[in-house]
């Protein structure tokens, strides 16, 4: 059996090289997507609302999974980080829009994020099916 290659996926951000990480790592059928914030890469801005940031997190994660020949339906684990516990009731229905039928194992953490404008960060692990 041939060894499966490890593939690094980059968003193109110079911060990845500076901080020493990849947007995602594909190892065999496993895909590990780094914590993803609500940055809007089309407008190069961070939206103000936690709702729009959350939707952007999922858009960005979907883009990376597509690069790895996967989709949200392949996600088996998700970690949500929100900057304020008051956001929970706002973001839960949005999480459900994307994962309601997929139902990955999940954890929600309330913690400070890197920059004050960041309100949500989402990290996923996916496994491609043959």
From TrEMBL:
Pfam families on file: Ribonuc_L-PSP
Protein name: RidA family protein
């Amino acid at each position: 059996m041939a060894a499966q290659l490890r593939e690094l996926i980059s968003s193109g951000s110079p911060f990845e090289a500076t901080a020493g990480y990849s947007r995602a790592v594909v190892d065999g059928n496993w895909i590990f997507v780094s914590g993803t914030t609500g940055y809007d890469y089309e407008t190069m801005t961070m939206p103000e609302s936690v709702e729009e940031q959350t939707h952007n997190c999922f858009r960005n994660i979907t883009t990376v999974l597509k690069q790895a020949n996967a989709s949200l339906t392949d996600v088996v684990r998700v970690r949500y980080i929100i900057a304020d516990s008051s956001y929970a009731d706002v973001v839960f229905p949005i999480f459900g829009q994307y994962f309601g039928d997929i139902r990955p194992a999940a954890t929600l953490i309330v913690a400070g994020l890197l920059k004050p404008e960041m309100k949500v960060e989402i990290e996923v692990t996916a496994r491609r099916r043959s």
